[in-house]
Amino acid sequence: MGLRESFQAGLARQLGHPSGLRGRLVGAMLNRRNRTAVVKAVEALEPSGTETALDIGFGGGLGLELLLRRAAAVHAVDISATMLDHARGTFATEISAGRLHLHEGSMTALPLDDHAVDAIVSTNTIYFVLDLGAAFAEVARVLTPSGRFVLGIGDPDLMGRSKMLTDNGFHIRPLDELKAALSLAGLQVTRQERFAHSGLGFHLLVTAPK
């Protein structure tokens, strides 16, 4: 493996599971690079001041900042101990006040009770999930019957052309495959948005329980 391939493989690993100092740097980069996507995803979610929200795979924490401005309480799930430690420092006041609850876990095994949250957002995370059915079933389980889930993903056609992604474990799936898996889990796509982001197209799938 050459230097370029080695660098790309290391970056891909950090994007999927940030760790250590490099992980903290990646988290800060994600906040900058993904700002437009995260802002639009939270806007599409429309959490209210009486609701409990959840961010799955919150990374650098920009989504948590935005959700805390709008929701009564926020849960945050991430597999990365580095990102969890960073969030504990960044949002110490909100954690002490009982408005933010951090959990180490994955999208396929959410550490929350049934019907615990009203609004769920997850951006740029599904590429790292092997079992779509299990992930979306968990989302449906923790969501209230009147809740909604916003999934944000980069354009699959454009991402699929990147050897850095396809050669390093990113699972790039067509939108129709994602919609079918959501439907099987009992989540109906009620709205779809597409916009330009970082030179690529980005999609938001806004869903609700059937």
From TrEMBL:
Lineage top rank: taxon: Bacteria
GO molecular function, one term: S-adenosylmethionine-dependent methyltransferase activity
One Pfam family hit: Methyltransf_11
Keywords: Methyltransferase, Transferase
GO BP: any one term: methylation
Residue ranges of domain Methyltransferase type in the record: 54-151
UniProt similarity note: Belongs to the methyltransferase superfamily.
Alphabetized PANTHER family for the sequence: METHYLTRANSF_11 DOMAIN-CONTAINING PROTEIN, METHYLTRANSFERASE TYPE 11 DOMAIN-CONTAINING PROTEIN
Protein name: Class I SAM-dependent methyltransferase
Organism, scientific name: Amycolatopsis balhimycina DSM 5908
